[in-house]
Design a protein that fits this description.
The longest helix has 4 residues. The protein is built from one helix and eleven strands, in the order H-E-E-E-E-E-E-E-E-E-E-E. About 5% of the residues lie in helices and about 75% in strands. The relative contact order is 0.20. With about 140 residues, it is mainly β.
């Protein structure tokens, strides 16, 4: 996987949010505008959920070498290493989410797999105090 090649231009994501029992509790679509400036990639993600909620996330990916990037986002605490191995991308990070109208920090274990030149499958598992509390599964489609 080469993030500079896939995450460049217009992309769409379609996904589900599952609770800790594995039941789908929400669905969403995201429009993503991705571009690169020198060795930094930017992903502007605009989510719309089935209940009408909208979210915006802006990722910055700073290339370190051919397999390592440092990633930051507006709702992610700190910066985190993103590792590329073959057709896979691995990243663990702390995400601030809104839960019952209060901010909540969860650990995210993020795994992406390039299926072909136009599609990535992603699974993100959420943990609080080491306990699995939910997950997101999505497909990213390149135009």
């Amino acid at each position: 996987m080469h993030p500079e090649a896939f995450f460049n231009g217009k992309l769409n994501a379609y996904g589900v949010v599952k609770n800790r029992q594995g039941h789908v509790i929400r669905t969403f679509k995201a429009d993503i505008n991705a571009y690169w400036q020198d060795s930094m990639g930017v992903l502007e993600e605009d989510f719309i959920f089935d209940d009408g909620e909208k979210q915006h996330r802006r990722w910055e990916l700073h290339k370190q070498d051919n397999s390592t990037y440092i990633a930051t986002a507006n709702d992610v605490v700190g910066s985190h290493q993103m590792l590329i191995v073959g057709n896979a991308l691995f990243m663990d990070y702390l995400l601030e989410i809104n839960f019952n109208n209060k901010p909540l920090l969860v650990k995210v274990v993020d795994r992406m797999f390039l299926v072909n030149d136009g599609h990535i499958m992603n699974e993100s598992k959420f943990y609080k105090w080491g306990i699995h509390v939910g997950s997101v599964q999505l497909v990213i489609e390149k135009h």
